[in-house]
Structures are given as structure tokens and as C-alpha cells.
């Protein structure tokens, strides 16, 4: 069964409508890192990485 990973910025407490999804978890993490940098001036450090990890949802398609 195919699956994908989804992320919503609001799930980590940001007042932000950004969402992202990808079949590849690492690719999704890169999109999130890019968004964090450009939209929030945040670098993904270890703490934020943990928070993001927990917020990523796996969806069966
Ligand atoms: Zn955001």
C-alpha cells in the first residue's frame, strides 16, 4: 500500500498555513527545513527536528 508523509506548520505551534507532503520522509524534511528558513528564519536544530518529527503524519493512500 502506498503511503505519504504530511506536515502542517500549525502543528508545531506556528500561526502559519504552510503544509507539505511527500512520499519520502527525508525529502519532506528538506521541504520543511527550507520553509522554516525562508518563512520563519529558523534553522532546524536538534530540538526543532524532534518537534517536527513528532508532527509529521504518515498517511496510507
Ligand atoms: Zn510555517
Looking at this protein, list some descriptive labels.
binds zinc ion, three-stranded antiparallel beta sheet, 23% strand, alpha+beta, 61 residues
Radius of gyration over alpha carbons? 11 Å
Distance between the termini: 7 Å
Strand neighbour order, sheet with most strands: 2-1-3
Mean pLDDT: 96
3D shape: globular
Low-confidence runs of at least 5 consecutive residues: none
Order of helices and strands: EEHHE
What's the quaternary structure here?
Answer: single chain
Bound molecules: zinc ion
Q: What kind of sheet is the major sheet?
A: 3 strands, antiparallel
Fraction of residues in β-strands: 15-25%
The structural class is alpha+beta
By DSSP (H or I, 4+ residues per run), the number of helices equals: 2
The helix content is 40-55%
Compute the number of structural domains.
1
How many β-strands, per DSSP?
3
Descriptive report:
The protein has helices at residues 25-40, 46-55; strands at 3-8, 19-22, 57-60. The radius of gyration is 11 Å and the shape is globular. The protein has one domain (3-60). The chain has 61 residues and is α+β, with helices and mostly antiparallel strands. The protein has a three-stranded antiparallel beta sheet with strand order 2-1-3. The chain has two helices and three strands. 43% of the residues lie in helices and 23% in strands. The model has no long low-confidence stretch (mean pLDDT 96). Zinc ion binds at residues 9, 14, 16, 18, 35, 39-40.
Short description:
The protein is 43% helix and 23% strand. It is an alpha+beta fold.
Amino acid at each position: 500500500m502506498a503511503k505519504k508523509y504530511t506536515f502542517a506548520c500549525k502543528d508545531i505551534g506556528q500561526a502559519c498555513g504552510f503544509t507539505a507532503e511527500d512520499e519520502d520522509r527525508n525529502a519532506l524534511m528538506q521541504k520543511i527545513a527550507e520553509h522554516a528558513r525562508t518563512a520563519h528564519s529558523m534553522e532546524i536544530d536538534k530540538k526543532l527536528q524532534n518537534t517536527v518529527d513528532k508532527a509529521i503524519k504518515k498517511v496510507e493512500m
